[in-house]
Amino acid sequence: MTISQSPTEGGFYERLHCASGFSISIQAGDGHYSTPRGPSALYEAVELGFPSEVDSSILAWAEDRENPTSTVYMYVPAQVVLDLIKSHGGPVSGGCPPLASPVLPSR
Fold it and tell me: What pTM was estimated for this model as a whole?
């Protein structure tokens, strides 16, 4: 299992893939719906985007609730993101900004 907590050269984190097959984009920093909005050692809230399937635990943050797999999710709290990843069996590959919680859940 390789989870990167550093963005790619283009400034984006790779799409996160979970053991259940679920995947999602998790972004933070300049130009994203995150807290803080700039570079940070830890993020309290991040931007999620384009999940591979609908997950009711994040719908409250959806920009477009009519199209939950084709939208971004704004300022999603770090703990909600960690719980989401855990609910899908933990991460298996991809990237995630450093979250203001102890550690990423493992499988």
Answer: 0.89
